[in-house]
Amino acid sequence: MQVELLLLALAPVFLACVAGEMLYWRRRGRAEVYSWPDTLCNAGLALLHQGADKLAWLLVIPLYQYAYQHYRLWQPPGGWGGTLLLFLAQDFLYYWFHRASHRVRWLWAAHSVHHSSTRLNLSTAFRQSLLYPLAGMWAFWLPLAWLGFTPQQVVAVVLLNLAFQFFVHTQAVPRLGWLEYLFNTPSIHRSHHALNPRYIDHNYAGVLVLWDRLFGSYVVESADEPCRYGTVKPVNSVNPLWVNVVEWRDMLRETLAARGWRARLTLLFGAPEAAERVATQQAADKLTAAAKNPGCQAS
Ligand SMILES: [Zn+2]
Ligand SMILES: [Zn+2]
């Protein structure tokens, strides 16, 4: 099997788990955890993402190969030592990719797709962006080639990390005791998907929660404050194509309409909330200018 097809090969397992979770909630009288339009939108996003991902691997695997052949810094150990190092290095890079995806609007334009549903269930894991290759997700794995890992190893570990994360998208599993100290768990990832001020922009872990604890982004889910899911700026659509492009459209429209390079750079690469402030301010400035000079506006 080609390693790029790993997630597709696991699709039957994922679909069986989604069906099982749907039944679980129905039997407990909480069928509303799932809705068909939302779940079908998630499935559509998964298919689009898979297509784009396969194309992107075709382009970036030669790049990883080039970096591996010409710029690798050393030869990692074989066997379990090398595998452990690969896993740790990729999980560390994933943490920074994920953190940057929440703090840099260019990356958020793609990653917001994953967060834009107001529901959270196993099918939410399918919500992935078609435009991750454009955002530059692939660049975060390039250091693994410099570290001496082959492109096939890089692709395999990236996809295994994503496969693990499927299982943390559920409200059916409570806190898991000592596992909360080691791994990204359903409870940890629920708070990551929440937009409540106390939870937002925390818990970026892929597999190990170590990185959040180390770099100060860890938050505990509290029974006193149930998670509210979704994005601060709601998308209100279940059309997978629209969900994929809406934040890119907003970002480009606001950047093109903005005055000054500082504002434009903030709108593209600032934190999403800073970009929001700039966009609001620029729109207000325009209205003020138009009110002062109605003749100009008419022309
Ligand atoms: Zn996220
Ligand atoms: Zn998630």
Structural account:
The chain has 299 residues and is mainly α. It folds into 2 domains: 3-214, no CATH class; 240-298. It is 62% helix and 0% strand. The chain is built from 14 helices and no strands. The chain has helices at 6-9, 11-27, 36-71, 79-103, 105-115, 132-135, 142-146, 151-166, 186-193, 210-214, 240-257, 261-269, 272-292, 294-298. Helix 4 packs across helix 5, helix 5 (105-115) runs antiparallel to helix 11 (240-257) and helix 12 packs antiparallel against helix 13 (272-292). The model has no long low-confidence stretch (mean pLDDT 95). Bound molecules: zinc ion (2 copies).
Keywords:
299 residues, mainly alpha, globular, binds zinc ion
| Major sheet attributes | none
Number of helices: 14
Bound molecules: zinc ion
Gyration radius, in Å: 21 Å
Order of helix and strand elements from N to C terminus: HHHHHHHHHHHHHH
Which structural class do you get from the secondary structure elements? mainly alpha
Q: How many structural domains are formed by the residues? A: 2
Unreliable sequence segments? none
Oligomeric category? single chain
